[in-house]
């Protein structure tokens, strides 16, 4: 050992004495340590440290086993002094396990033990006439296996020294750091120290007890959220407390900004849970919205202690209590508990299943039952069934699946068939989902959250991470708006030459991301040609009911591409049939029917129906599912003066933020075509003021906006009132504040009374005039 004198057997030489200064820091001991009879140490502390380092180097722990004292009389203090005369140090596996179980057997826990009665031990002695401790006997044989990781994981070697404990105390007391953060801070400073979560947590809790840092994780979370609520009175916080144990078993919260986002973008809501975000294993429940820039936004969040139907019903109810608005569509995974909760709490919402989760569940549930060969054939047939464009075809194909693969019937019946409205394209294609078919947006946010929290994090840490995420979302939103306003975008040739007047409107009112999507559709419109169909012939048309799955498979084989599971991933394929489209509206409301044919792939034609109220429907269903006017209709606008544009043909959710306050003005804008000659104004009685009420209820959205604005005013006034109340209490001026409030109330009550009396007088006067008129008539 470097710095240590060589060990000698001659007792009269000082070189066999271990003075101990070299052992103050175990990490500096690099040379192998040896034991021998007669080895001498200056103190018992040095001897013990030497033996423990010997054990560490050899992969086991050395503990104190036995001690023998001798008493001396101190003449100066006149007290007896006990001095250790002999000590025995043994392997931690020494001794035998002695169970001490007094509890009934059904209440006993089967604890493990390291005790193997290992005989390894070292005897040491300090004779009365000597100044040194000597090794007098050694038995260095073990009766157990020496584990290679003992030097890392044994409790003795993991113990934090005082320097590390001081750093932990500083982080806890002044930084309010958790175990995850403290580990990241200390590991670079102490690279050879193992920082297990349980050791850090124990040290943190001990420091909190000693420093009297009060407050559990639940109380810290509530404190964090309630402090936010003081700044934002409109914020909604709802804990769920178990009345029997008085413990937190759930908490839901929405910030003031999230409530506003919900009022605008809750037409489509995604929900999913993420695990391993906190040390209590409470699932983190996230609601995700898609804003007018197409960006994911945190809409609401909650901690739950389980994933039962009752817990899901509770969090869904909290969204209703906080906003008063039920989503039109909610996209979730295939959790049966969430399915049941949506049916009871979101009874009017359309429930869509994440298609990615379904694709993951099918192999897990059916591959073993069907076998590899049959399962491969089943998957092909299943997606073909799922992609059916009409209900009748779907039902026929699903029955064929049941007959062909009877071993999978249990799972195919329940839950697959029972939830068909949530995943089969024949049903979901008619629903606005902003183009989403999975909860992938939630998964992406989950991955971001997991970068800053872990299974050792507190719930308060997670809440802070979510708050940081929301701030970044707002900053990104502001940056996008700034970039759009400060950058000059040169328009493509097609947009500038064919749709310039429409472009000026969408640039003014719609968000940049949606404008870009519309430009894409405009530019691609030149790849098509149009043919008008006779309305009577359109009702008889059925050629488009040729199985598109077969067409896609043939094209995939021709192009050497893999088969695409979801028909909506085929860019230019029909999502419904013409017959289904015209049967969805009254015949007398149909003005024209057109066939839009691509030059390159004529078989992939679409049909557009123009209705008398200025709206339209296309078999691509892009406007219905994505809320974007399609390239097929833009092509028709170039060719047909009856194909007109209005910005409210698309959902108001795509409007810029400042355009929300101009909906009444926007509604009264005229329908326009591709040139000003096609301009047609609207009047207050024209049904085109609020286009496509079948798909987007714009009037309801305006009402929601006014309802939310009232909540904003309420929150702002309550905040001012609380501030005034605090000032009055500080200055002992409550009476003055009370008089001000009473004066305001009296003024409003007098105004209300005068209004009521005025109505009564008018009613009496009208009655008198009516009676006088009747007298003249008689």
From TrEMBL:
InterPro entries: FAR1_DNA_bnd_dom (IPR004330), MULE_transposase_dom (IPR018289), Znf_SWIM (IPR007527)
UniProtKB keywords: Metal-binding, Zinc, Zinc-finger
Region ranges (Disordered): 752-778
Bias-annotated ranges (Polar residues): 769-778
GO molecular function: zinc ion binding
One Pfam short name: FAR1
Annotated SWIM-type domain residues: 605-641
PANTHER family: OS01G0519700 PROTEIN (PTHR47718), PROTEIN FAR1-RELATED SEQUENCE 5-LIKE (PTHR47718:SF3)
Name of the protein: Protein FAR1-related sequence 5-like
């Amino acid at each position: 050992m470097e710095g240590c004198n060589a060990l000698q057997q001659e007792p009269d030489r000082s070189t066999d004495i271990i003075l101990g200064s070299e052992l103050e820091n175990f990490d500096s001991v690099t040379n192998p340590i040896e034991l021998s009879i007669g080895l001498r140490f200056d103190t018992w502390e040095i001897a013990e440290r030497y033996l423990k380092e010997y054990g560490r180097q050899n992969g086991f722990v050395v503990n104190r086993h036995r001690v023998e004292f001798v008493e001396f009389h101190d003449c100066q203090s006149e007290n007896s002094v006990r001095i250790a005369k002999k000590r025995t140090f043994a392997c931690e596996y020494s001794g035998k396990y002695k169970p001490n179980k007094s509890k009934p057997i059904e209440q006993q826990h089967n604890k493990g033990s390291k005790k193997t009665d290992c005989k390894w031990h070292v005897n040491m002695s300090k004779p009365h006439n000597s100044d040194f401790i000597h090794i007098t006997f050694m038995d260095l044989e073990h009766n157990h296996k020496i584990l290679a990781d003992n030097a890392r994981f044994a409790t003795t070697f993991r113990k934090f020294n005082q320097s590390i404990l001081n750093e932990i105390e500083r982080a806890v007391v002044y930084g309010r750091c958790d175990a995850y953060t403290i580990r990241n801070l200390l590991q670079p400073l102490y690279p050879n120290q193992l920082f297990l979560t349980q050791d850090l947590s124990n040290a943190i809790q001990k420091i909190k007890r000693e420093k009297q840092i009060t407050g559990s994780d639940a109380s810290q979370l509530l404190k964090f959220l309630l402090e936010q609520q003081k700044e934002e009175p409109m914020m909604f916080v709802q804990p769920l407390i178990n009345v029997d144990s008085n413990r937190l078993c759930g908490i839901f919260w929405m910030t003031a900004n999230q409530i506003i986002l919900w009022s605008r973008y809750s037409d489509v809501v995604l929900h999913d849970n993420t695990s391993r975000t906190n040390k209590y294993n409470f699932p983190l429940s996230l609601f995700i919205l898609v804003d007018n820039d197409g960006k994911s936004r945190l809409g609401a969040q909650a901690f739950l202690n389980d994933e039962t139907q009752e817990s899901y019903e509770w969090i869904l109810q909290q969204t209703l209590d906080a906003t008063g608005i039920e989503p039109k569509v909610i996209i979730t995974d295939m959790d049966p508990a969430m399915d049941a909760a949506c049916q009871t709490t979101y009874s009017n919402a359309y429930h869509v299943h994440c298609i990615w989760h379904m694709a993951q569940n099918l192999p897990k549930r059916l591959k073993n039952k069907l076998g590899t060969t049959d399962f491969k054939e089943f998957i092909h047939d299943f997606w073909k069934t799922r992609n059916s464009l009409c209900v009748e075809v779907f039902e026929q194909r699903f029955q064929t699946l049941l007959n062909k693969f009877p071993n999978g019937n249990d799972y195919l019946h329940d839950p697959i068939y029972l939830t068909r409205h949530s995943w089969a394209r024949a049903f979901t294609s008619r629903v606005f989902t902003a183009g989403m078919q999975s909860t992938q947006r939630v998964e992406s946010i989950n991955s971001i959250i997991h970068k800053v929290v872990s299974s050792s994090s507190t719930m308060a840490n997670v809440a802070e991470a979510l708050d940081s995420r929301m701030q970044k979302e707002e900053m990104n939103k502001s940056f996008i708006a700034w970039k759009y306003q400060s950058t000059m975008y040169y328009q493509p040739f097609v947009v500038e030459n064919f749709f310039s007047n429409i472009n000026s409107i969408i640039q003014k009112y719609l968000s940049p991301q949606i404008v870009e999507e519309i430009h894409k559709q405009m530019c691609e419109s030149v790849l098509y040609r149009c043919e008008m169909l006779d309305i009577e012939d359109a009702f008889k048309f059925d050629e488009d009911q040729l199985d598109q799955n077969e067409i896609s498979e043939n094209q995939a084989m021709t192009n050497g591409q893999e088969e695409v599971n979801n028909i909506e991933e085929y860019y230019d394929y029909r999502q419904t049939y013409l017959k289904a489209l015209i049967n969805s509206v009254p015949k007398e409301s149909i003005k024209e029917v057109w066939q839009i044919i691509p030059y390159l792939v004529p078989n992939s034609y679409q049909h557009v129906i123009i209705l008398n109220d200025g709206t339209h429907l296309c078999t691509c269903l892009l406007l219905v599912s994505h809320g974007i006017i399609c390239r097929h209709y833009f092509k028709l606008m170039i060719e047909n003066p009856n194909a007109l544009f209005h910005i409210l043909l698309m959902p108001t959710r795509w409007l810029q933020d400042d355009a929300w306050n101009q909906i009444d003005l926007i509604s009264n804008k005229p329908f326009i075509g591709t040139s000003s000659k096609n301009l047609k104004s609207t009047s207050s009685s024209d049904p085109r003021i609020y286009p496509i009420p079948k798909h987007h209820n714009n009037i309801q959205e305006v009402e929601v906006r006014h309802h939310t604005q009232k909540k904003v005013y309420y929150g702002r006034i309550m905040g001012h009132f609380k501030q005034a109340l605090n000032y009055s209490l500080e200055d002992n001026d409550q009476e003055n504040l009370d008089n001000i409030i009473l004066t305001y109330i009296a003024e409003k009550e007098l105004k209300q009374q005068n209004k009521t009396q005025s109505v009564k007088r008018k009613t009496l006067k009208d009655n008198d005039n009516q009676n006088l008129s009747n007298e003249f008539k008689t």
